[in-house]
Amino acid sequence: TTRVSTLVGAAKQYSQMDRAPFQVVDVHDLLDSTLVILARKIGDGVRVVKEYDRGLPPLPAYAAELNQVWTNLIDNAVQAMDRSGTLTVRTGQVDDSVVVEIADTGSGIPADIQARIFEPFFTTKPVGEGTGLGLDISWRIVVKKHHGDIRVSSEPGDTRFAVRLPLTPPPGTPAPAPVEGIDD
Q1: Considering only Cβ atoms within 10 Å of each terminal Cβ, which end of the chain, N or C, has fewer?
Q2: Bridge-partner residues for 59, per DSSP?
């Protein structure tokens, strides 16, 4: 019963179906719900390490879309490790931005293609295993919609995607709806 209840709660948080599109969120709630939803895909061979800065302020964001970013980055990391290794999810604050880092101990992304990984339809996966759209979609959500930044650094055994999101709403966005449990 507890496991089902946890999964239902995570699905509700992950989908954001009963919430305003643009809202003030606790980024850790989004990350945790994504990890719960992807738990089976992550599997037992991947050790998940959370290094959360619990002092982060609430983030104005399109929460459901950020969950798509976390899903893409975590799924890619698990695949890069061939479902065995360490996935690290780290949060922090740099200046006026929240930074979320998704790191893995996989084989890495060759330096000569790192500049292309956010291009639409570019994939490092074998034919039939990837569309080449996950990182392009993530880039669009982070950069175009949130006016943030997403970068990669990679070498064998240490690939890190750093997502930087501003703590002030992007120009032209609606006033964020508050979320239960977060004080304004």
Answers
A1: N
A2: 25
- Distance separating alpha carbons of residues 9 and 41, to the nearest angstrom: 18
80 CB neighbour count, 10 Å cutoff: 20
Mean pLDDT confidence for 172-178: 69
pTM confidence score: 0.83
What's the token pair of residue 41?
């895909």
Residues composing the chain: 184
Residue 72 and residue 163: Cα distance in Å, rounded? 12
pLDDT in tens, 52-87: 999 999 999 999 999 999 999 999 999 999 989 999
Do 137 and 71 contact (CB within 8 A), yes or no?
Answer: no
Between CA 147 and CA 10, with CA 80 as vertex, the angle to 5 degrees is 60
Cβ pair 50, 89 in contact under 8 A: yes
Inter-residue long-range contacts of 149-155, CB under 8 Å, 24+ positions, other chains counted? 150/69, 150/118, 152/109, 152/114, 152/117, 154/108, 154/109, 154/111, 154/114, 155/108
